[in-house]
Write a structure and sequence with these properties.
Elements lengths: L3 E6 L6 H6 L2 E4 L2 E4 L2 E4 L6 H7 L8 E3 L3 H12 L4 E6 L7 H12 L5 E5 L4 H16 L4 H10 L4 E6 L4 H6 L18 E5 L2 E6 L4 H13 L6 E6 L3 H10 L10 E4 L2 H7 L4 E6 L5
Parallel strand pairs: 1-2, 1-6, 6-7, 11-12
Antiparallel strand pairs: 3-4, 3-5, 8-9, 8-13, 9-10, 11-13
Length: about 280
């Protein structure tokens, strides 16, 4: 069976156990706070970032990995693998995908390298990465893994609410949700990722109603194969959502994940979300 290396970026929000279990290589994005540059989830943890965010003199910013870092990663993996599949954050939210493409083209045809635009982020990207690893273990080659993932990208969902649209607006990641700015600054809007960009899903005025909206979003899907609950700074809120879904998925099978510093930069404190993989052919 071919040895397929699975690569993703740090916005996939996969914990260490999942990364190790599925042998996933992670390339970090960068976080900029003032004159300091941190590798996402390597030089700074999510909790450390949330502690620093309120006192940051200038708003933190993020940047994609350099193509050279991808090239270095790919070249190292070619020594021990027959092919590489890289599943990355939506190209409409980050230049990470383009950095990986540049790296692949620089390497040439040493081994097959498939670069997949997940059209998603956070754990909905993470679920695609896990699926890639599962397909590799089933014996599929890189080309067929890429085809399966691209053909099922619509089965992965990410919805979340934010305390304020300020962070998304400031980071330029607000997509079609830009129409909400101004009229909804005092609301708790629920947003989702659709075709790779952030779009409005539902208008809510309180956190309680936002929680109900997220619950309704998940329950409205025809099938749930994998379910995750996400948070930036409030783990208790994530636990509350896990309990709400206990009749759908056993709580010990629901993945609870803290959003990475890079993701948190754009959604801000107290954001909570859900990630769902319906299953292929759902």
């Amino acid at each position: 069976m071919a040895r397929i290396a699975i690569v993703t970026d740090s916005t996939a929000d996969l914990n260490a156990n999942l990364r190790e279990r599925h042998e996933i290589t992670v390339v970090p994005l960068n976080l900029h706070i003032g004159d300091e540059v941190f590798r996402d989830q390597i030089d700074i943890s999510s909790d450390q970032f949330m502690e620093r965010l309120p006192t940051a003199i200038t708003p933190p910013t993020t940047s994609q990995p350099a193509s050279g870092l991808f090239e270095e990663t790919f070249r190292a993996l070619t020594a021990t693998h027959d092919a590489i599949v890289a599943v990355l954050i939506s190209s409409k939210l980050s230049g990470t995908y383009q950095s990986a493409v540049i790296a692949r083209d620089a390497i040439g045809t040493t081994v097959p390298i498939e670069i997949i635009d997940s059209l998603n982020a956070s754990l909905s990207l993470g679920f695609q990465v896990i699926r890639a690893a599962e397909l590799a273990n089933e014996g599929l080659d890189a080309e067929h893994i890429a085809s399966r993932l691209r053909g099922s990208s619509g089965e992965y969902h990410l919805a979340f609410f934010v305390d304020t649209l300020e962070y998304l607006q400031r980071g330029g990641r607000i997509g079609r949700a830009a129409a909400l700015v101004g009229s909804l600054l005092q609301l708790k809007p629920i947003l989702r990722v659709d075709e790779g960009q952030v779009v409005p899903y539902e208008r809510t005025r309180t956190r309680a109603k936002a929680f109900t909206g997220l619950e309704s979003f998940v329950r409205g899907l025809p099938r749930i194969e994998k379910l995750g609950v996400l948070y930036t700074s409030d783990p208790a809120s994530a636990l509350e959502l896990v309990e709400r879904f206990s009749d759908l998925v056993p709580p010990d099978q629901i993945i609870r994940a803290q959003m990475s510093p890079v993701i948190s930069t754009h959604v801000g404190p107290n954001a909570v979300g859900v990630a769902v993989f319906e299953g292929e052919g759902a």
